[in-house]
Amino acid sequence: MPDSESCARCRRRGIKVKINTVITIHNWEEDMVESIRELAPFRWKVFQVLLLDGENTGRETNSLRDARELVITDEQFNAFLERHRDIDCLVPESNAVMRDSYLNLDEEMRFLNCKDGGKKPGRSLLRVGVQEAMKDAGFDEERFFSRGGVFDWKRDPDEGPNFDW
């Protein structure tokens, strides 16, 4: 986790701090309330660890990583959320909420369609353009909006950069 002084420096410069935390079998019982309050991010995204074939499900699926031992149940994820329910900036993302609500590009600029629990690359947007490549993405726009995918991340225009070099 970032330290509170780093977060304070960001805030003094008008930079919003966002923290992402993946909840796994190793941290689902933790109480992070005090730490998050001290860091005071404008947004704290809390993700349930998500398995995707070809990404993190072991050699059987040609994955480079194996996160199967990190998986938690929905009940464990909900217990973590309940323990942190008083944190106003918390934005929970269960597996059901995350699935198909992100646009992911690989190194060849292909959208990765994760609809069937894997990562199937589509056509490169460098070859067919964004509109055509989006047809391969498996992106659920409604799910994106319902999970709060659009939010104000910009610095306040009234605040200068406030550099202190």
UniProtKB/TrEMBL annotation:
Co-factor requirement: [4Fe-4S] cluster
Keyword field: 4Fe-4S, Iron, Iron-sulfur, Metal-binding
Keyword 4Fe-4S belongs to the record: yes
Gene Ontology MF terms: 4 iron, 4 sulfur cluster binding
InterPro entries associated with the record: RSAD2/Viperin_antiviral, rSAM_sf
Presence of keyword Iron: yes
Name by which UniProt lists this protein: Radical SAM superfamily protein
